[in-house]
Amino acid sequence: MNYTSTRDSALCTGASTAILTGIAPGGGLFVPQQFPQVDMREFYGLTYPQTAQKVLGMFLTDYDPDFLKTATEQTYSTENFGGKAGFAAHVAGNTYALELWHGPTCAFKDYALQLMPRLLVEAKKNLGETGVTKILVATSGDTGKAALAGYAGLPGIRIAVFYPNAGTSEVQRLQMSTQEGDNVAVYAVNGNFDDAQTGVKRVFADEDLAQELAAKNEKLSSANSINWGRLVPQIVY
What we know:
The chain is α/β, with parallel strands linked by helices. The protein has eleven helices and nine strands.
């Protein structure tokens, strides 16, 4: 499975590069050159980790299948999701509601942001990247804590989260500001979420900064939904 850019159809790269880079050169988004076609009956009876392994295996073809099996089993374990990963609550008759709040931060974004860090670290291994990856995140609340919890303590990773001052719930603010880890940082922005997101996008578009970081063997990446590593776990549910 190869990936191209929404702004450059001539670009062609693998999943590891797409996930590690985050946003494509020129500001485009990495997207698959084609989408797999499946028979949904193949998924009947599978657990959530098994479903995740099957879906990810179709899109992340340069990842070791054994890694995907271990990563999905560990990410969606009972320890992390209380035994309710992919839990569908009965509503009435044949109607069920998929509950996505059983993760460690009680946000549905846990489904992607508990697995995404594993995918990014593995992408670095696949590509032989040894430098520091700096993750920048703009959040209105849920993404920030879920990303911080997922990336905290990972070697070769630093993450900075920007949220609108007085623009999140108090629970979300406390979740972010009390996150432990030597590689995490949280900043309140005087403005709204759009201001935080605009600032982060400007950093990604700064070519001089990119060159300065490259000289230090450092690169920027993102945990927002512009990164395919954030999107592909969301396809599962």
